[in-house]
Design a protein that fits this description.
InterPro entries: AB_hydrolase_fold, PLipase/COase/thioEstase
Oligomer: single chain
Pfam families: Abhydrolase_2 (PF02230)
GO molecular function, one term: hydrolase activity
CATH architecture: 3-Layer(aba) Sandwich
Keywords: Hydrolase
Helix content: 25-40%
Largest sheet: 7 strands, mixed
Radius of gyration: 15 Å
Protein name: Alpha/beta hydrolase
Distance between the termini: 33 Å
CATH superfamily: Alpha/Beta hydrolase fold, catalytic domain
Length: 197
C-alpha cells in the first residue's frame, strides 16, 4: 500500500486515513497539530472512484459494497500489523485518525478486528451497516467523534447511529458538532485537548 511513515518520539502512532479523493499527505498537518510527538503511518486508499482514492467501493452515496468493505478492512488491518512489526510499535498504541471515508474504514476495523485499540479520532464518520449481531466489547476504547449538523452526506440519523454503535459496546464517546461535512479548526482543537488530557 502507498503510505508514509514518520518516526516520532512517542510510543503512540497515528494511523491517518484520508477522505474520498485524498492522499496519504492530506492529514499530515492534522497529525502534527494533534500531537507532534506521535509517530505517523499515513495510508492511501487503494480503490479508485472516478479517479478519486477511496478505502472501499460503494454503490452510491451511503450505499456500501459490504463485501469489498470487509475485504479492504481486513487487508488494511493486516498492513497496519505488518508495519507495527517493521517499525516496532504496539497495535494497542495505534490511534486512528480519519476523515469521512477514512473514518468509515476505521469504524469497520474497530468493530471487526481482534485488536484492543484504545483511542480513535474520527471526523464525519458514517456506518450504515447492520451490526446487530456484533457484540464486541469496546470498553477499552476512547473515541472522539466530530459530526456534522446539516451534513449533506451524513444524515443526522446516521451520526446518531455511529454514536450509538460505540456506546452500546461500552466505548467512552466524546462528541463535537460542526456545520456540514467538514474538518474544522475548532473540532481539531477540541480533539487535541481530548487526546492530550
Amino acid at each position: 500500500m502507498e503510505h508514509i511513515y514518520i518516526e516520532g518520539k512517542s510510543p503512540y502512532v497515528f494511523v491517518l486515513l484520508h477522505g474520498t479523493g485524498g492522499t496519504e499527505h492530506d492529514l499530515l498537518p492534522l497529525a502534527k497539530t494533534l500531537n507532534p510527538d506521535f509517530s505517523i503511518l499515513s495510508v492511501r486508499g487503494e480503490i479508485q472512484e472516478n479517479g478519486m482514492n477511496r478505502f472501499f467501493k460503494r454503490h452510491g452515496e451511503g450505499k456500501y459494497d459490504l463485501q469489498d468493505l470487509e475485504k479492504r478492512g481486513e487487508s488494511l488491518f493486516q498492513f497496519i500489523r505488518e508495519q507495527s512489526l517493521k517499525h516496532d510499535f504496539k497495535m494497542e498504541n495505534v490511534v486512528f485518525v480519519g476523515f469521512s471515508n477514512g473514518s468509515n474504514i476505521a469504524v469497520n476495523m474497530l468493530l471487526k478486528e481482534e485488536a484492543e485499540f484504545k483511542r480513535a479520532v474520527l471526523f464525519a464518520p458514517m456506518y450504515p451497516v447492520d451490526i446487530t449481531e456484533n457484540t464486541k466489547d469496546m470498553s477499552e476504547l476512547n473515541v472522539f467523534l466530530s459530526l456534522g449538523n446539516n451534513d449533506p452526506m451524513v444524515p443526522e440519523a446516521e451520526s446518531e447511529r455511529v454514536i450509538r454503535l460505540f456506546k452500546e459496546r461500552h466505548a467512552k464517546v466524546s462528541t463535537t458538532f460542526v456545520e456540514g461535512h467538514r474538518l474544522t479548526k475548532e473540532a481539531v482543537l477540541k480533539a487535541r485537548e481530548w487526546l492530550n488530557k
